[in-house]
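Consider the following assembly input.
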Amino acid sequence: MTSAPPPNPAADIEEILAAPLGLRERKKLRTRRAIRAAAFNRFATQGYEGTTVDQIAADADVSPSTFFRYFPTKEDLVISDDYDPLLEAELRARPAEESIVESVLKAMIQPLRAVLADERDDLLLRMRLLRENPAIRARSQVDMIRSRDMLLRVLSERSGRPTSDLELRAQATAVLAVSGETVEYWAEHNGEENLITLLERALTAVATGLTAH
Amino acid sequence: MTSAPPPNPAADIEEILAAPLGLRERKKLRTRRAIRAAAFNRFATQGYEGTTVDQIAADADVSPSTFFRYFPTKEDLVISDDYDPLLEAELRARPAEESIVESVLKAMIQPLRAVLADERDDLLLRMRLLRENPAIRARSQVDMIRSRDMLLRVLSERSGRPTSDLELRAQATAVLAVSGETVEYWAEHNGEENLITLLERALTAVATGLTAH
DNA sequence: CTCCAAACTGGTAGTTACTGTCAATAGGCA
DNA sequence: TGCCTATTGACAGTAACTACCAGTTTGGAG
């Protein structure tokens, strides 16, 4: 879904189990999945740049026009961020006295569990594409800014400081950047290590290691 | 310059004062400046996306082909990073016992002085474009990765840890992300505050504030 | 069940960034 | 002066998008 107004804001996981959607909705979901699947198949063999939108559309049996209705840009295929709202909810549920690192770590447990359960392999593939393709990496980092702003809002509310506060912005930026980096590290190691443990290590290193002699 | 093989790797500042270049070289420099100037003029009135490469080329009196010989992509007009080598040298000159934050802060003083002296206004405008235009922001963050890798290498060498070390990567990532964010903050305030002071505040907040109750 | 409005779709015709090629030209140098 | 090479412009092409319009499908009201 990422940055799209087209279909629905936070779908996928929920929607599959949740409601008996109308035929229209189900068809849309199916199309969406078909396009994404076709794309990833091509990517795996031809690479990202070597795959054209027309090919993807043909494989998925839709017109190129339709492709762009589902994914505003080719890059959107790779980036997905259905879990931000969940993370936000978890974050707000943490007590304000907790340290930032502690809150973030605990708030991430649930969303991470969900991601890993639903689309672990997809995530690994996506991170590989991201590592190999500068354009995608660039795009995904823009996306990260949205997450960062969310974190910034939450931190602002619970600390009483404005979102324009330099220190607060620095902290939110650092936490998000480090988290992203950690997921990459995790993917580079084929997802064999425990992501939460890695996150804890990385955030701790930043929180305590930057001023150590 | 950034990521271009075409003209010369680290020119501009040096070249102006340094040598009595041949006519050919001088012409190249002039063309380069003409293109950049034309572009920024258009950007200021029509915005980035609203300006086509053809317009820029026409204003600068060159063919579109030539434009791409000087700037491999339109985005390269906005991004410039002539100061990384200088920063790297300064960093390597810092003693290994120093904390990361301390080394980075001290190493940045000289390069920052140079940037602010040479192209303060350009930098402010560039940051504004970057704030307004997602594509440019994306691109500049790719560029940041290069800087991060440089920092990572330096930290790796002076600590003896490998560049693949999670903690080291987290620290390098955090420092660079926070620095970038701080420059944005500085630009949002029209460059009226002292950039080094801001950097010190931001990095300190991250180094000490993430685990505070 | 019927019919209508809205949602969805495909096709067509752009626009723009960017690439490759090739011949002409202009600068540097013997 | 005259040769060699870097620089250039014109041209043709590709691929990612955008705008528009006409035809079909769906969900719901009567």
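Chain B touches chain A at residues 97-102, 134, 137-139, 141-142, 145, 166-171, 173-178, 180-182, 185, 198, 201-213 (CB under 8 Å). Ask yourself how this observation constrains the way the partners meet.
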